[in-house]
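Dear colleagues,

For the upcoming journal club I promised to circulate an example of a predicted protein-ligand complex. I picked one with ISJ because it came up in last month's discussion. The inputs are reproduced below in full, followed by the predicted structure.
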Amino acid sequence: MEAIQKRIEAGLEAHSAFVIYRKPGEKKVISLFRNDRPMESQGSDSFVFTPFDGQSYELDLSDCDRFETNQWDAKWSAETPELSFDLDQKLHFESIVAKAVDAIKEGRFDKVVLSRKEVVTLGQSAFEIFSRLLSVYPNAFVSLWNHPETGCWIGATPERLLKGQNKEFQTMALAGTQQFQGDESVEWPKKEREEQRLVTDYIWNTLEPLTQTLVLSEPHTHRAGNLLHIKTDISGQMRDATTLGDLAKALHPTPAVCGLPKENAILFIKENEGYDREFYSGFLGERGENHCDLFVNLRCMKISNGQAELFMGCGITAESNPEKEFFETVNKSLTMKRVLKINS
Ligand SMILES: C=C(O[C@@H]1C=C(C(=O)O)C=C[C@H]1O)C(=O)O
């Protein structure tokens, strides 16, 4: 553990390529450090880091030193952050939400996911943030990715994009958000149920031609830290000619992070969000010839020079209220802020 911590700290300092991660509900923390030894053979297993829109980065496992531990020292508790926000950011976000609602009413698309980023000054190291996330979010996919060309990204996402082994696969439709207030058996308003149904329908329609069997659970409440979402579990079996790569390509970006129809939503996002999402709402995880375990990069932050950029978004439909949507992004930012000591 101490040796790994040293290697992580040295890797951050040297901007070298490595990743540390833990899957939802598991204890095992896996570290992959790219080494300088000459590559003996190109392996088929890798860890992939893909932006919202653009080229993937990959760590080839045959090119990495790999460590596993079930004993990460991670007994941290969450802080209760103060609810604060910047008024200019609020006004800007509300104005693009209002514009999106108008565009939906004009029929340009049915749903779009709009996001923003917030910069905070950190009072702790990337290693500490990662350790705290492990402890506070046992049911999230927690990761710290570092690479000379992408910088350092840390997150605790509730959303699996695709898990597959040979022809079997699992995915999920996750959308709709409310604050967790001590009780998971909550009522969901129509707006939230509709918003999540659009995601389920999209995944069904996209996967149907590529699969032999496709099974959907009933939508149910899923807790992600201080938030609740609606989730439908989706599983099935691919057709012989389909690969897991085809499925991932067809799914990403789902309307949980982009919108519907996809192309018009992407256009609106690019014209109106006013910043580059980079790897936020992209995906990351293990990929091999006949298996994969990929997650959507949400509840994440980019760390550099003692600062963190926090990324958060929410689904906009015809019924959206701009101020409510802004506060949904504030609530999502608390997922990260709960583990950050912020220097103000
Ligand atoms: C876009 C984010 O989350 C996604 C959007 C949700 C929503 O609109 O309610 C809920 C879960 C995620 O699929 C985010 O966390 O930034």
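Two points we might discuss: The chain has a mean pLDDT of 94. The helical segments are 2-14, 87-105, 126-136, 190-207, 244-251, 262-272, 322-337.

See you all on Thursday,
B. R.
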